[in-house]
Structures are given as structure tokens and as C-alpha cells.
Predict the structure.
Amino acid sequence: MQTPPEHAYPAHWEADVVLRDGGTAQIRPITPDDAQRLVSFYEQVSDESKYYRFFAPYPRLSDRDVHRFTHHDYVDRVGLAATVGGEFIATVRYDRIDGHGMPASGPADEAEVAFLVQDAHQGRGVASALLEHIAAVARERSIGRFAAEVLPANTKMIKVFTDAGYTQKRSFEDGVVRLELDLEPTDRSLAVQRAREQRAEARSVQRLLAPGSVAVVGTGREPGGLGRTVLRNVLAGGFTGRTYAVNHAFPEDLSVLEPEGVPAHRSVLGIEGPVDLAVIAVPAAHVPAVVADCGEHGVQGLVVLSAGYAESGAEGRERQRELVRQARSYGMRVIGPNALGLINTAGGVRLNASLSPELPAAGRVGLFSQSGAIGIALLGGLHRRAAGLVGISTFVSAGNRADVSGNDFLQYWHDDPDTDVALMYLESIGNPRKFARLAKRTAARKPLVVVKAARHGSAAPAGHAVPTTRIPDATVSGLLRQAGVIRVDTVTELADAGLLLASQPLPAGPRVAILGNSESLALLTYDACLTDGLHPLMPRDLTTAAAPADFHAALAEALADRACDAVVVTAIPRVGDASAADLANALRRAVAEAPAPKPVAVVHLEIPGLAEALAAPAPDTGGTTAPAAQEGAADHGPAPAVRIPAYPAAERAVRALAEAVRYARWRRQAVAPGRVPEYEDIDEAGAAADIGVLLKAHGATAPRAVTLSAADTQRLLARYGIAVLPALPAPDPGSAVRAAHRLGFPVALKPTAPHLRHRADLGGVRLDLGGEAELRRAYAELTELLGKPEEIRLVVQSMAPRGVDTVVRATIDPAAGAVLSFGLAGAPSLLLGDTAHRLVPATDRDAAELIRSIRTAPLLFGWRGSAPVDTPALEELLLRVSRLVDDHPEVVGADLEPVIVAQHGVHVLGASIRLAPPPARTDLGPRSLPPY
């Protein structure tokens, strides 16, 4: 006899979680095979913890206890365990009860819950993680409330419940604290969950970046090779912790590897002290044995340089999954495989566990790259261009990012006091919804600049086992902008923007002063400013005879001008004897003396040494006065401790400045975010009832969606205050005339067949038909032009006022969620891709920005003397559509086309709605790492 489906082992409850200290644990359902694990676990729990669990001395579990705690139906009785290294470290269970506290089955919706955490693992946040997962399981099994009885002295467990953020009741009777938790997620429970996630994932990255000891596994016996190279880089960088060389081929009597002089071991297990980080550089076939040794020794994290994983095909993908599965089972995080390593320049660490030949200069820029080659090239390029200007705080080349990803580093950088600007090179985004959430939170504190490669293909790069997304790249770009991310197109632009943001204050606005000794270069800069949406002031030409003192005076004047928010200085070689150092010194002094901080960038052509002089540190004069500069310098003495970025082309400097302007505007607006308005005429309950009836009537099953009829679409939209202009079928001329009399002349006649819908270019729409004869003539013309009436499905519709034709859409992507889109109807959106996007729920500010961010937006605001249309009404329509799809996840698609925006009001001429059972919201579930 087969086991009933509801009693089958629920594999989807298995999850890996990051704990408070940055280590990982696996959470899974308890099975009858776990009897010995449970006994062993219980033996390691202190008598005090046992007393708190059972309210009495309970030294050992009886056979009956073991059977009861390991046999569950996974519906009314469920047990979960947290494991590390395959052994239990904590358990939680619930038993469904009725109103009298007795065992029950559904529809009873309350359960009694109890935890037990091994003493050695208390304080790691295990119970909090288990509560999130057992609550999700309970909700899946139609349990809405937990009850727990706790001894007053068990303050740790009481805190687990009270800090969870759920709505709760608390009472005290018979010497026991009784807690009742409503399991419906609340804003507070979600906030608590995400705050814990941030702290845990940030801590897991910190453990990788700041180890007290490093073992390089696969260190070659001869110079060269990955392992030996990384070992030498670790030592050359001045790592402050202990370093070990490991190779199973070392002679048994070898204790010190020369000439490096580091302890040598044949296995990690042979190292007497703790090992926090292991860098693995052995062939892929030998990695599992190394990981096992590391896990048994208690290593906290791995950097796997080895190749031969998902980038090599199906067999490699399975090898990669097994690597992550094995590492997580021991509580370890993994960077890689196929990675190039990580770097931390902090003075107390100085770790270069990478293939970069030197430790970069310390600074305040964090760098994450999914490509090792791009990452190393970026490090080298920043070093050449920015020596003295900016430095690196942390760097990681994540390779195939099978485990640790860009999301983890966003969690870390959010609170990292040593990182002011974050740069990321991404080839895929595994969890766009989470990335956007984390990026928005990080961008509110510090700039985040991203290059997203593979823009024109949906396939993930080799080695990246990530979910695919149907969202076009333009949509991804719009969502990143909404989150405050500075998205650039090239690695060069990534470095350009990073240099400006790391060395200059944010601009207060878009007004740019331009000054220099070349009128032509100034005009190029002026044009570039206009192209990038800045507001340039008229350039100031200092002429080619300008000396450093002239540059100093002009820059000082521009920085003092309240009508200027930023300055671009242009320079070409001067006919004279002033050096690049003189010019740099003059510019730096002007910036240092400015009454208010403003960003300054320099564009120069063929002035060797200028960029270096602008970035050079101020010399230490030991308290003496520096000698006078050459004639024409602005002042005497050394350059102040002011750094100015230099660019070889006007377009590059202006583009970096424009990104800074847009980001600064986003930061200012983020201080007072928009709101999701309430509308009194929205009937959310009525819409929910309609959707339930329609789904049942159509028998919709995920992932297939059903398209509603015109009548059902209009009824559902009406629940949200959205009216669709009436249209009546016209299968013959007589029906068309009767429909027109019913609606009232003038009317429009148009086809609704799928292949003709929204094809105004075919001449298939007749407007302003004022009488019966005109209507019959139009009917004959369309049927002759387009086909038989039954093929083209003509309808008669009331005329709407003249205005601008637009399109409003909402679509659902499994990875990114609900997306609201807007554009003009016809060629602008279809041919030119001029469509803007925002994540749902949209705020009033999002709606206002949405209609203004398309390139053809001027048509809405009175372009070339035309009357402006009713954009407030359009914004309200967008917000109502956003509310519809946010309130009802069953609405997986909504298309309103065309929407005519007139001088007064908006008019929806066509609409379609698609329904499906709601997709799972992974971002609202319990904390867990991505599955492997």
C-alpha cells in the first residue's frame, strides 16, 4: 500500500540557513531513521536544558519517546531538526491540538510547539531559524496559531518567541508562562526576519574576509602553480594571521616549506591549531576529500580555485551541487568554485588570498566580480589610474558563485565602516527580487555601481546555476534604477563612476560649470552634459595662455557660485614652462579653499603626469614651508590633501558625473519615500471573491493562466475603480447600427481579432462615425480590407476625447515579482523599446517618475505647443493597476491598451486580464540559502 501523499516525506521543507555567527546549518524533517541521532543529541544536552524542555528531570529518552519524536505524519505532527556534520544540534516539533489542548486533526488550527537546542549551540540563533521554518510548515498545513508553555526561568526561549515579531498573547498560570503566537506574517515579523538575515549573512562574509588563520590546500612542492602562487601572495601581502601549506604529496618528514618558511602539512587534519579559511587549489576530483577534512577540522569557510565544475557541463554541474551540499553540511560557506580568490586590505588583516600579484592599496571601495579575469583587470586598472586617489577595501572573485553571491556581499557592505562605494561586475542575478531589496537598502547609505553583462541573452553564463528570467534587460535596468543602483554599460564606466564617487562629494543638483584653456574641449564637454541630461552653464574659456594661477582663480570662482553644483575643468598642454604638478597644485588648492564641497572632475588631453599629480598624497614637509612653486602657480607650499579624478575624454567624465547627479537625487528622495495611496472605492473583498469564482470556473492550474472574457475583465477592473469604455460586438452591419444607437453617435468601429488588435498601421480603425450611413460604409470598407466579419470580429465603441495613446501593463516574473510598465502606444514602445518599469507595489512617487522616465514623455506635457494631458489621472490609473496585482497575486497579467490620456481624464479602450493560482513568494518565506 502506498503512503498517502500528505504523509510522504516533504523534501521541500529541507533548507540550509545561515546562523547568527555566520556558520550554516541544515534544517530538515525528522524521520524514523534519525532515532540514533536523536539519542546521541539528547545525551549532549545539559540537565538544565532538559528540565526546561520537560519541566522535570529527564535524564534520558525512553524507547517510546524516541519513537514518538521520530515518527510523524507531517500534517498534524511535525518535527524538524537543525544539523551540522549530519548530527542534530537542535529540534523543534509541533502537535495539532483542539480548543482543550488535546491532540486533534484539521480543521483545528492551533498547535503546541516545543524546542530543544544543544547547549554548545545556544546563542547562535538556531531556535529563531527553526521557529521561522516550523511556522511556515504550520501555515502550509492550515495551522494559524502556535501555543507554547515555558518555565519563567527559561528566558532564552521566551525571548525567541517574543522577539519573532508575530502577534502574540502572553499569560501566566500554575507557574508556567503560556505564549500564543498568530503565525500570519506581519510587517514586524518580516522586518525581524530580514534584519536577522542581514546580520547572519554579513557575519558569514566577515568570517571569510577576516580569518585568523589560512591554509592553502594544494600548495605545490615546486614554485609555480595555483596553490604556491596564492601562498606567496598571502605572505607577500603581509597577512597578519597564521598561514599553513597543505599538500598530501609533501614528504612525511617535511614540517616547514621553504623558502616561504611556513608550516607544511599533508592534511588539514594534521594542523594542531584552528583553521578559519581554506583556499583549495587541487584538481576537482580531489576536492571532496579536502572538504571532508576541512569540515572535520572545523574550518569556517572555503575559497575553491579549482575548475572543472558547472562551467564544464552536466557532470560538472552535479559535482558543483555536491560541493555546496558537502560544505554546507559542515557549516561552511564557499566562494567559487572556479574563483580567483579574495582580498581584504584592512590593516588588521592584510589578506591577499587571490591570484592578484600584489595587495592593492587600502581604500574605501569594495569590489565584487563574477569573472576572475574582469576582477583582476579591474584591480590593475584602478591601481594604475587611481594610485593615491582611491583604494580597495575588499575584493572577491566569486567564480561560479555556487554559494556566496553578490547578495551576501551587499549584506556585508551595508554595515561595513571601511567601504564607502561598492562596485559589482555581474553576469547573472540569481534572485532579482532579493537583489533589488538589498541593493535599495545599501544604496540608501552608499553608492552601488553595477555592470550587468549578458544583456542580450537570457542564458546564464557557463557555471552559473541560476533561475532564468523572462524579464527583458531594459526592465532589469529600470528596476535597478528604482532601487538606487547606478547601472553602467562597460567596465570602463564602472571604474570611471567609482573613481568620482569615491573621491568627490555628491552634487546638489545638475548644474555644471565648465572652464579650461581649450574652447573646443569645453564645447565637447558642454555637448556631453546636454546628452546626459545635465544643465551646463556657458563654458568659460581661459585661453591657451592660461597659467595655473588662472585655473585656480576660475575654479575658485565657480565653486563659490551658488548657481553651480559641479565643475568640469578641461585642460590641454600649455605653451610655457608650468608643469603638470603646478596645475594640479593650483586646482587642489582651489578645491580645498571652496566654501562648500562640490564635485570636481578634470578632463585633459596629453598632459603626462597630471592624473597622478591630482591624486598624489600631500607631501610631509615636517612642519617646514615648502619652496615656492614655479612662476604662475596659484600659491606656495604643498598641495593640500584633496584628490581630484582625471579623465582622458569629456564624455567619460560627464557620464560619471551624470550618474552621480542621478544617484544624489535618488538619495534625497529616498529620505522621504512615496506612499501607496488608499482609494475608498476599491472593493478588494469583492475582487477576491470574483477571482476565486473565475479560477474555479476555468479550472486554472499553475503555471498555466486563463485569459478572462471582456465582460469578466471589465467587472474585475471596475472593482478597482477602472472603467473600460463600452464596446459592443458587430457581427453584421445591422448589429453595428443597433450598437451605435445604444451607445450614442459618434462611435468608432474596429477589429478585435488577435492578429489585428492594436494594428492601427493597417488602417483597420474608423473613428468619429457620426451616423448610420457613415457607419455602414465603414463596415463595408473594413470587411473588404481585412476579411470576413467572423474573422476580424468587429466591435462598435463609444468615442473617447482626443489625447495621447498609451499602454499600461503589469506582468509577473517568478524571480522578480510583479512589474508595472508604461509607455506610449505603437512604435515608441514596440519598435524603440521606450517603456519604463517599476516594481509593485508602486508608490505615488514611482507613478510620477514612471510616466516621466520614457524618452517620449514630452508628448504628455505639451510638446511643441500642444495642450498638456491629465497626468495626475494617468498616475492614479497606474496606482490602481498596481494595487490590483499587489492585492491579488492571482492576477498574473494585466494589459490596458490603448489608454487615451486626454486633457481631462483617462479612457481605457481595451483591457485583458490573466489569472492563475498565485505563485509562491520565496521572499516572504523563512530564511534560507539558495538551493544547490
Summary: The radius of gyration is 33 Å.
